Amino acid sequence: MSTDASDGAEAGPAVTVTPDAAEEAVSLLDGEGLDTDVAGLRLFVQQGGCAGLSYGMRFDTEPEEDDRVTEQHGLRVFVDPSSLNYIGGSTLDYESGLQAEGFHVENPNVEAECGCGESFRT
């Protein structure tokens, strides 16, 4: 398991987490009764969507051995090696507004997105 320092290791974090995203995710983790010192948010890429790939998120009680672990603003984010190839350098944000509310991934590796923004191609 490789770990990124919260201040950014030399290679930089696998995923940057905004304070709003961290606050919301930690609140949800606490609500599930998970220990935020060990548990975290898993961010991954899966086949699907009209553009070919889509993002997935879930809570995990602990990272897998080969995960890249980023800890920022009190939130641990787990990314598996194959997903890291697609989402490395991305920013995880949380948006709350009239149009939509939820987590959003800003991915610099995306070449095209579907119209709804739920799937992408690199």
TrEMBL record:
Protein's GO biological process:
iron-sulfur cluster assembly
Q: GO MF annotations for this entry?
A: 2 iron, 2 sulfur cluster binding; 4 iron, 4 sulfur cluster binding; iron ion binding
Where in this chain does the record put each Core domain? 15-118
Q: Which Pfam families match?
A: Fe-S_biosyn
UniProt name for this protein: Core domain-containing protein
